[in-house]
Amino acid sequence: MAESKQEKLRVAVVGASGYTGGEVIRLLLEHPHVELAFLSAERSAGAQIGAVHPWLRNHPGAAGLKFRPLAELPDVDIAFSCLPTGALPERLPLLAERAKRVLNIAGDFRLRDPHDIATHYPKTAAHPPQEPFAYYVPELSPGIPEGRFINLPGCMAVTTIYALYPLLAAGLASTRVIVDAKTGSTGGGRGGNEPPAERAGNFRVHKLHGHRHSPEIHQALEEFTGASLDLQFSTHSLDVPRGIMVTAYSQLKSGVEPLDVKRAYAKAYVGKSFVRVRPAPKAPQDFPMLKAVIGSNIAEVAVSVRDGECVVVAALDNLIKGAAGQAVQAMNLISGLDEAAGLPRTAVSP
Fold first, then answer.
1. Catalytic residue list
2. I need a surface site. Which of 36, 155, 273, 341 has the fewest CB within 10 A?
3. pLDDT: is 349 or 278 the higher one?
4. How confident is the model at residue 188, as a pLDDT?
5. 126-147 pLDDT, tens per residue?
6. Which residues of 189-220 are buried (b: 16+ CB within 10 A; e: fewer)?
7. From residue 60, how far is each of 26, 50, 65 by CA, in Å?
């Protein structure tokens, strides 16, 4: 008897005209188990995909697909929300009515502390969801979320979480951690107002204190490891379109050996196909770097220890593993599909 053909998931991409929305579309066009049923973008309503995302115009699956107003959203299995932070809360009732599950890539529903929400996501505070959002990191969250609503982590936050999780889960380091995170220009979204002439050939401070990913890192690592961090989290802007590199500095506890650290990282990510621990880096090119991850859904992590000082380096593509790819990975897992379906494992270069 012939094996029955698997029914495709009907998927909507909401806020599909931005960089993240474009990446979600690109990945789903190659996904074997997805039907792209709806693409929304208010200001681009009526336009074809190629008119907004020229890099997608030659894909045969894009022919005939047009952006439409959100009010026309049909019933779908999954809705990816790629709206700018602050835009989803008012629109959530409509998505909740017409989508069986909502995966949010923006920051609106990541935090639980009311003070942090009011500080960093005031529009969320004014429009709390009727149902709770699960905060979901595919490699670290226990099991598959049971609810309808899922919020994916922030790109710099999840890079930091990958860097620090093994160290803290094994109780090997003090909780005082300094993190230096560097990000490409797409981290600011397609509506960013920084002139290219000011970013080109430049490397500058983005935010030294008070970044909204800081409370997210605190919350996630305490939930996943039980450790309450004393965290200094500072960010810088790179002159590259995409990519994030995090360097995290900590002090090992007395008696902890380099081999203990090596084993902790190997154990934490064994079987996690999208987080790769670099083996005993010796030369600079052995460490995580943007050229090794850009264009892929891979996060690279490496750790170096000397005289009790621990330095962890992690890198990923902010638009894929830090956003669209992680969301597709989550969709695959919650839908019972192959986790890797539709996701690239290799980087692009030069």
1. 155
2. 273
3. 278
4. 79
5. 998 888 999 999 999 999 999 9
6. eeeeeeeeeebeeeeeebeeeebbbbbbbbbb
7. 11, 11, 10
CA distance linking residue 69 with residue 42, whole number of Å: 5
pLDDT at 45 over 50: yes
Please state, in angstroms and as integers, the Cα–Cα distance from residue 121 to each residue in 111, 127, 159, following that order: 9, 10, 21
pLDDT of residue 3: 39
Report whether 172 contacts 242 (CB < 8 A): no
pLDDT of 312 strictly over 80? yes
- Amino acid at residue number 249: Y
Amino acid 5: pLDDT: 56
Q: Residue-wise over 46-75: b if at least 16 C-beta within 10 A, else e?
A: ebbbeebbeebeebeebeebebbebeebee
Residue 277 confidence (pLDDT):
97
